[in-house]
Amino acid sequence: MGIVFGAIADDFTGATDLAGLLARSGYPVSLRIGLPREGEDSGEISPFEIIALKCRTNPVDAAVSETRQALAWLRGQGGERIYWKYCSTFDSTPNGNIGPVAEALMADLGTDQTIYCPAFPENGRSIFMGHLFVGEQPLDESPMKDHPLTPMRDSSLVRLLSPQVRGKVGLANRLVVARGVEALTARLADLRHQGVAHVVVDAVADEDLAVIAEATLHLPLITGGSALAMPLPRFLAAAGLLAAASGGFSLPRVTGGQIVLSGSCSAMTRKQVASYSQAAACFRLDPLRLASEGIAEASAWLKAQAPDAPKLIYATAEPEDVRRAQEVLGIQQAGEVVEQALAALARQAFDLGTRRFVVAGGETSGAVTSAFGVNRLSVGREIAPGVPWTFASIEGQPVALALKSGNFGGETFFGDAFRQLEGA
Ligand code: ADP
Question: pTM of the predicted model, to two decimals?
Fold first, then answer.
């Protein structure tokens, strides 16, 4: 079975977010971490294949080269409809990478028009008259204006995109989208006639996304945040493209010990750690002790726990504690000490029979999956918006992994995750 819909995401948690939304459809979704290696067995191909890259702030040439290789792999597996997924706050600079990557993918796909729709109404990202809003604030008045790597100092997507691309940029505004599929189709054709290659499309509600997904179903490439992909399975199925792939989840039922590993210090993770520590045995990692004494103490604690018992190992700390550790060790070193410790403890937990893992933190999740040598995840149901259970095979053993980025999930997320897996 070939790919019905192939996506390339510019970061890891963005890819899991997209994967979770697509998995809402019940069709199999597969997430590959990094470029699939040449000559490597691709395993079973899912109708929805997502390749997670880490190229949001890479030099333009590197980002273009990586995404083109990802595209070549997707096309090699039969993918004809391609999605370029970036952040719903259009994180980019005047150099890129959103526009240059889109333009390179368009050239490879031989298409002369694509759309840009980072709207995610459920999460407060909407586009009106080409301006992107975060909640009620224009993008350039939102906290994104101060982002350390991609400060967003304009809210007009047309103006933001123009210096990033060579082709003409235009707009299909909400008044058109609100009139429905035919009106949007006609507007896109009209813009194409005027030589407009890059069309920003307004959307303020999920209904708009459905209109856009249907009107652009024939395009080889569409681009946006994760939400635009949400209505797509419905239209692909209606077009008969998913019929052969139906059958829903055939994911492994994973039993075996459980653990939560948290390396995120985000506000929501701090609440989740506080809540779960009421119910679970806990071990707190101190970066300074880790730097001087390693993980022996944590390992001994882990070995003494019953595999099935709820347990939590965390480095999660308040901002002043994080600062203190960073002052002594340096920001980079403090982060790495914690990430490497959690990754090594995850491996030990696996060796002790743990098969169900909840990991908090985007970077932390990357460290844990790479310690496991996992480069492919099958995507299951969402636990919370943007965080699905995923499944992998480690040394031939089925393992369940919930990889949560900082601010995702509610306060009871950790317990909810295991309850959902048991009920699945
Ligand atoms: P998030 O998704 O919340 O941003 P990440 O895992 O991506 O979480 O990033 C958190 C970073 O903070 C990681 O590099 C982690 O190792 C580091 N970290 C975790 N706990 C501490 C701590 N107590 N002191 C210093 N750095 C820490």
Answer: 0.87
Which tokens is 259 given? 């653990």
Angle formed by the axes of helices 12-23 and 362-371, nearest 10°:
90
Around Cβ 79, how many Cβ atoms within 10 Å? 22
Ligand 1 nearest-atom number relative to CA 322: 24
Domain assignment present for 154: yes
Which ligand 1 atom minimizes the distance to the CA of 336? 16
Q: How many CB atoms lie within 10 A of CB 68?
A: 16
CA angle at 118 for the pair 125 and 72, rounded to the nearest 5°: 155
Residue 244 has pLDDT above 60, yes or no: no
Give the domain range for residue 418. Answer: 257-422
Whether 152 is in a domain gets the answer yes
Peptide bond before residue 95 is cis, with ω within 30 degrees of 0: no
Ligand 1 geometric centre to CA of 388 (Å): 21
- Whether residue 27 contacts residue 47, with contact meaning beta carbons closer than 8 Å, is answered with yes
Same domain, residue pair 99 and 195: yes
Atom 15 of ligand 1: nearest residue by CA position: 335
398 in a structural domain: yes
DSSP sequence for 276-297 = HTTTSEEEE--HHHHHHHTTHH
* Residues 405, 29: Cα–Cα separation, whole Å: 19
Residues with CB under 6 A from ligand 1: 263-266, 269, 287, 315, 317, 321-322, 325-326, 334-335, 338-339, 361-364, 405-406
7 Cα–ligand 1 center, Å: 28
Residue with the smallest CA separation from ligand 1 atom 20 is 315
Q: Whose CA is nearest to atom 27 of ligand 1?
A: 335
Residue ID of nearest Cα to ligand 1 atom 24: 322
Tokens coding 124? 């407060």
For ligand 1, pick from 87, 264, 333, 407 the residue to mutate: most ligand atoms within 8 Å of CB.
264
Are 195 and 317 contained in the same domain?
Answer: no
382-396 average pLDDT score: 91
Q: What whole-number percentage of the chain has pLDDT above 90?
A: 81
Alpha carbon nearest to ligand 1 atom 5, residue: 361
Task: Assess whether pLDDT exceeds 70 at residue 420.
Answer: yes
CATH of the domain at 388: 3.40.980.20
Least-confidence region, from 35-44, 112-121, 179-188, 403-412: 35-44
DSSP-assigned letter for residue 157: H
